[in-house]
Amino acid sequence: MGISVEEGEWAIVGGTGQFAMGTGVIYKKFHEQRSDGNIIELTVHGFCPMHKGSRSLPTKVGPWGGNGGSDKDIVEAPRRIESITVSSGTIIDSIKFSYVDQAGQKRTVGPWGGSGGKQNTFVLGTSEFVKEVSGTFSLYGRDNHNIITSLKFVTNMKTYGPFGQAKGTTFTIPVQKNSNIVGFFGRSGIYLDALGVYVHPL
């Protein structure tokens, strides 16, 4: 939509088919005048939400840590993390989180790990998302297994942590500019042995 001018902008206010609910801007620029009509240049920047049927699924990245404990994972594909609870002292004892799945249902997972440590809970704002997770893992305990010893979460607004004590091998899980971390998977027993993430486009 917009008035017809030689140079300027039009607004994209909708679409059909796969581009239903489209929005954006079209930039119009005069290019060349000819006897059989003018040539204009259009630069289109259009955006549209994906339909439910064509929604992409998140991908797994990782995990990092040890191979002790048992596998931990989520049942429904995640769309957005709402809150994270980390219990820690000198190591990461457990992690618990709530997320919204692809169908819009809120789900709570965990705790994965033991009951020790001090609980730290943070709730993400409506426009806040996790863009990086980092931490360390090291040999620990009588069994001398690798476990997660520290965790830090970076969102588009702030940093949470580090929780635990940064000792051992470091790892960082950044995501691409137009993606975010929407859930976790890993391994746990009496501690959090390993942690990986689900990544999804914004």
Give a verbal description of the structure:
With 202 residues, the protein is mainly β. It has two domains: 8-47; 56-201, Vitelline Membrane Outer Layer Protein I, subunit A (Aligned Prism), CATH 2.100.10.30. Helix content is 0%, strand content 63%. It contains no helices and 15 strands. It has strands at residues 8-12, 23-34, 37-47, 59-65, 70-72, 78-88, 92-101, 106-113, 118-123, 130-140, 145-155, 159-164, 169-174, 179-188, 192-201. It has a four-stranded antiparallel β-sheet with strand order 4-15-14-5, with no helix packed on it. A hairpin with a 4-residue loop joins strand 7 (92-101) and strand 8 (106-113). The model has no long low-confidence stretch (mean pLDDT 89). This is Jacalin-type lectin domain-containing protein.
CATH architecture field of the largest domain:
Aligned Prism
Outline type: elongated
Series of secondary-structure elements, N-terminal to C-terminal: EEEEEEEEEEEEEEE
What's the number of structural domains?
Answer: 2
Q: Which spans have pLDDT < 50 for at least 5 consecutive residues?
A: none
Topology at a glance:
Layout (H helix, E strand, L loop, with lengths): L7 E5 L10 E12 L2 E11 L11 E7 L4 E3 L5 E11 L3 E10 L4 E8 L4 E6 L6 E11 L4 E11 L3 E6 L4 E6 L4 E10 L3 E10 L1
Antiparallel strand pairs: 1-2, 2-3, 4-15, 5-14, 6-7, 6-9, 7-8, 10-11, 10-13, 11-12, 14-15
GO molecular function: carbohydrate binding
InterPro entries: Jacalin-like_lectin_dom, Jacalin-like_lectin_dom_plant, Jacalin-like_lectin_dom_sf
Protein name: Jacalin-type lectin domain-containing protein
